[in-house]
Amino acid sequence: MASRLNPYIGFGGNAREAMEFYKEVFGGTLVLNTFGDFGDKEAPNANNIMHGQLETDSGYTIMGADSGPAEEYKPSDTISVSLSGDDADELRGYWEKLSSGGTVAVPLEKQMWGDEFGMCADRFGITWMVNIVAAQQA
Description:
By secondary structure, the chain is of the alpha/beta class.
């Protein structure tokens, strides 16, 4: 298997809901494992997600999990997830779903560098940047 880089998103108890939402947005196959699947099924966090992985129809991989029992959940704005390419319809569709119920920081529109770009935080507080590459002039 070749190396790959993908986001691994931390959640504070709503990883199942978030990962199911991302499956609705991107499609694909979602596998969720709870803390109870690999430990004490009676523990208070037994139904929380220890590891979730979404393999999308477009070839993206998104991973996520709830904070562990000994971890404090600390949301951070130091990382964003970026989607880019030239399939405008696909990317606009992702934008519509991700920004719905979230907060738009930069509307998806043409920018000074020529591409369409937008930035939003989804309803789970995760920041997404969408960049639609401008068609090249012949």
